[in-house]
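Example for tutorial group B:
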């Protein structure tokens, strides 16, 4: 018992002692007047910023497929030709969702038509629909995105509401 008590006291006292080495951290400040931060340009950056234009967050399934379309490099495709100035139409599909995108010779998306089924509605839209149609339940939702590089995007949600045996379809354009 004495050895157990002595051991606990010894362990308690070693915990109170200080470490033999102090940690030091060196910091420096960059004082270079010639330094300018780099801006990395993503070829289809404007296309990826559709969510900012819509002022509503897009569903994750939409963002994922749009990212695939934005990162697609048409210059690595076997049908690509450096000599001719032409456009390339590429189809992307994931389950019931699909994008038809038109690229220029530099790989920039000129326009796209997108269709998504069973997407999660943005919170503001679902709240507004719930207020406007009390007693109705959300049954189905679809989203269509028409993107044009010069005019921006038009996002249309088609929502099917259900109340007992009745169905009602509404369409909202952002």
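The residue assignment follows.
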């Amino acid at each position: 018992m004495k050895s157990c008590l002595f051991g606990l006291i010894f362990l308690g006292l070693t915990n109170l002692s200080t470490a033999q080495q102090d940690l030091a951290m060196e910091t420096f400040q960059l004082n270079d007047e010639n330094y300018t931060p780099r801006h990395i340009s993503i070829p289809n950056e404007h296309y990826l910023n559709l969510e900012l234009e819509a002022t509503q967050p897009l569903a994750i399934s939409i963002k994922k497929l749009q990212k695939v379309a934005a990162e697609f490099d048409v210059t690595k495709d076997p049908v690509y030709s450096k000599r001719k100035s032409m456009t390339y139409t590429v189809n992307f599909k994931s389950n019931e969702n699909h994008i038809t995108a038109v690229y220029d010779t530099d790989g920039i998306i000129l326009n796209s038509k997108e269709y998504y089924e069973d997407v999660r509605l943005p919170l503001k839209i679902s709240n507004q629909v719930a207020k406007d149609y009390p007693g109705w339940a959300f049954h189905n939702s679809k989203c269509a995105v028409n993107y044009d590089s010069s005019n921006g995007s038009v996002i249309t949600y088609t929502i099917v509401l259900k109340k007992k045996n009745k169905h009602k379809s509404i369409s909202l354009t952002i």
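The chain has one domain: 45-173. Compare this with the pattern of hydrophobic and polar residues in the output above.
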